[in-house]
Amino acid sequence: MQTTPQDTTPQAAYHALIQAGELKPDTDQANAVAALERLHRELISYPVITSKSSGFHFRWPAGLSRWLGSNKPVPQGIYLYGGVGRGKSMLMDLFYAVAPIASKRRVHFHEFMLDIHARLKEWHDLSVQERAQHGGRAGDDDPIPSVARKIAGEATLLCFDELQVTDIADAMVLTRLFNELFAQGVIVVATSNRPPDDLYKNGLNRQRFLPFIEQIKEKLDIIALDGPVDYRYNRLKGAQTYYHPINAETTTQLSAIFFRLTDRRVEDRAKVPSEELNVQGRILFVPKAARGVAVFSFKRLCANPLGPADYLAIARTYHTIIMVAIPEFNKENNDAARRFITLIDALYEHNVKFLCSAAVPLQSLYAKADASFEFERTISRLMEMQSENYLTRGHGKTIAS
User: Fold this and answer.
1) Parallel, antiparallel, or unpaired for β 157-161 and 187-192?
2) Domain with CATH 3.40.50.300 in the chain
3) Residue 26 — φ and ψ, nearest 5°?
4) CATH fold of 10-225, please?
5) Which residues lie closer than 8 Å to 214 by C-beta, 6 or more apart?
6) How far apart (Å, rounded) are the C-alpha atoms in residues 379 and 362?
7) pLDDT, tens digit, 9 for 90 and up, residues 31-72
8) Quick one: DSSP state of residue 47?
9) What's the predicted TM-score (pTM) here?
């Protein structure tokens, strides 16, 4: 999918993609684009929130103070929800690329919450005097207002991909955090597989999370993308997910699937970006990633000393993983094989789609390795992960009833 110039609008960019044959007309998508167009036009004259000092200290810019003190309504954000592959992330990215505001941030929701918890820890580690220097009030042990002000000073427009809540630590923070963000004039656009009322469904102490749902319904325009077409699955339909042996042909086939899933041209392979994930203060390098699809070598993820936290971060961040060059497992690479088991468990539990190239057929992958019970479970999961039922599941871990 081609990039769009900054001086266009969501509707113009969307119609251009249809005319170019990269998208097909879709009524639900058109309704969502109309809402994004409305927000785009309202943002043109909306003041930017700026932070005037370092640390957590924050001063209101005069333009925003006047806006919030006037009778002008703050632009209503947008919440796009629907099943897997309906085009939610694509539409949000299209909107973000042309949004007429410089102070903006587009981030996967899980990554955002990791950042929030890191900032909360940083604040708690400050002394009373340091908190005062960073804008805190004397005797105040509540970091939420200071952290929210810092976030607001960094981005007036926040775009979240895959908003979902399965962690009680996240659930307990969200209501107060977003109350502060909204009060400070932050505009939110989010995508989710679930309608607001289904967020954190069956979660522990969910009653304490319900005010966050009401905030979302009040501050954001709720748009459903419930069309019958699963665009992501259509791109995978009929394709293999497990390729062997490891050679130029299987590598070319996996590469073609990556470009199909990410709406990129093969000719632009040199422009595919890398990414970095922050895992408990460490940086995990992602060699190639676009539109929720990441590419790794087996060596990078399983021959190196990574652990469950790394694999969980990957599973939460990407809806599809492509892995190249999985070897046949034996006693010499048994440690890497065990890491592979842990990786597949994390991907399976979060409904991540998995495509790979391997040295041998799936049933022969663990023929010479130890711990056959765990390997048998992994083979079973890999087989299930090739099924239509699995490939059409929404990304993310489901909270058990």
Assistant:
1) parallel
2) 10-225
3) -145, 120
4) Rossmann fold (3.40.50)
5) none
6) 7
7) 999 999 999 999 998 887 765 444 444 444 445 655 666 667
8) P
9) 0.70
